[in-house]
Each structure stands twice: as C-alpha cells, then as structure tokens.
C-alpha cells in the first residue's frame, strides 16, 4: 500500500469536487480508508508543494509518482486509490 499525496487549495472548485468524490469512494470502499492520505494545501504549505513538479490542482501523487493532475472525475480518483492499493 502506497501513500497518496493530494495537492490542492481550499477555494479551488476542482479540488472541492475531488474531495467530494473521495468521500463517496471512501464510503463505498472501506478498504480505501486504510490507504495513507496526505492533503497538502499549496497556499498554506508552499515549502512542501515546491518540492513537487506539477502545475494544476488537484494533483495526486502515489508513492512519489504523479498519477493525476487537474480536473477530475470519479474514474480518475478511483484510479488513484487503486494504484495506491496495489
């Protein structure tokens, strides 16, 4: 199981959608709750965000590898969790 890092910021509508999808996935897939998840607000934690190579939020890294960046749908977010669960 690999850690998921989600880079986001509070006022981003795409990030809000991603968080809503994540909540729904966690509800319907309890095994996902065991996956370590770190949410990093790039505006509040720029010292962490600056260490990663991405341009758009939300951006998901799994085990240090960028797997999804920018606007998301349920399929993309589920793919992030599936990759982390491998």
3D structure, described in words:
The protein has helices at 13-28, 46-49, 74-85, and strands at 4-8, 37-41, 59-62, 65-69. It has 86 residues and is of the alpha+beta class. It has one domain (4-85): Glutaredoxin. The protein has a four-stranded mixed β-sheet. The model has no long low-confidence stretch (mean pLDDT 96).
| Strand tally | 4
Radius of gyration: 12 Å
Q: How large a portion of the residues is in β-strands, by DSSP E? A: 15-25%
Which series of helices and strands comes N to C? Answer: EHEHEEH
Write the CATH architecture name. Answer: 3-Layer(aba) Sandwich
* Average pLDDT, all residues: 96
Number of domains: 1
Structural class: alpha+beta
Name the CATH homologous superfamily.
Glutaredoxin
Shape from CA axes?
Answer: globular
> How widely separated are the two ends?
6 Å
Look at the structure and give the CATH class: Alpha Beta
Instruction: Please give the share of residues in helix.
Output: 25-40%
Give the helix tally: 3
CATH topological fold name: Glutaredoxin
Please outline the helices and strands:
Layout (H helix, E strand, L loop, with lengths): L3 E5 L4 H16 L8 E5 L4 H4 L9 E4 L2 E5 L4 H12 L1
Parallel strand pairs: 1-2
Antiparallel strand pairs: 1-3, 3-4
